[in-house]
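Hi support team,

I submitted a single chain yesterday and got back a structure, but I'm not sure I'm reading the token output correctly. Could someone confirm the output below corresponds to the sequence I sent? I've pasted both exactly as they appear in my results page.

Thanks,
R.
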Amino acid sequence: MKGRRNIYGKRRVIQASAILLAALIFAVGSRLYKEQLRKNADVSIHFIDVGQGDASLILTDEAAVVIDAGPASGGDRLTSYIKKYTDKVDCLVISHAHEDHMGGAADLISSLDVSEVIMTSYSTEAAFFSRALDAMIDRDVKATESKVGETYSFGDIKLTALSPDKDYGDKNNDSIVMRADVDGVSILYTGDAESSAEKDITDVYGAFLDCDILKVGHHGSDTSTTDQFLTAVSPEYAVISCGADNKYGHPKQTILDKLTREKIKYYRTDVEGDIVITVSDGKIKTK
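Hi R., thanks for writing in. Yes, this is the structure output for that exact sequence:
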């Protein structure tokens, strides 16, 4: 019996060693795979299909920034998508406390190494908000209140907060509007900001709004993307993040017509799914 026990013991040691080695090989292989994905382009800007909601990833060799986390129903998909590229998120920006923009935040924070969250001071008693705060506390994530005019740098990604500088009394207009600059390319993230916020931003920032890529406000609702605002931004590309056959009728045909009239190439997550824009030496490439 003693001999058999020794044999069984050796087998267990060998099996455990094999499992450990396999896990190590997988971990190293996964890390190398993610590094290779990063190196395929100097910068990649992802607009992730999370259904009726917003979620975007800016990824470089130096940093990863996520803008909004989509609805709770898309939390698993968002997390799985980002994990293909990185396990570490330097910053998560939550534009405002609506479920379709931060419902997936708790999943993201619980599943990845998120260093910092930038958000407004406005809150809600909704369960998705409480879950996100609980996840931030559990993971000891730094919380930063967005301040208009402030610049936040993460590696080679620079974020500048343009709004809100007052309480509009409406969470859509109270969205953080954030300009991102990376490798000579600029992206304007507008959350759900509507016409009154757009007017104030345009009046204050004028030419600084001129960007290469516009994340169209409020999923393509006709309450956003006024003529004045679109002229100031003057993007080459626009992205509309919305769910297929959503009950709101987003995007509105008037917005699509406006983008077409201005010769702005636009993409829609409800039609094309995940949208990836790459940047190399300041040059933009789209699918």
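A quick pointer for reading it: DSSP finds nine helices and 17 strands in the chain. Let us know if anything else looks off.

Best,
Support desk
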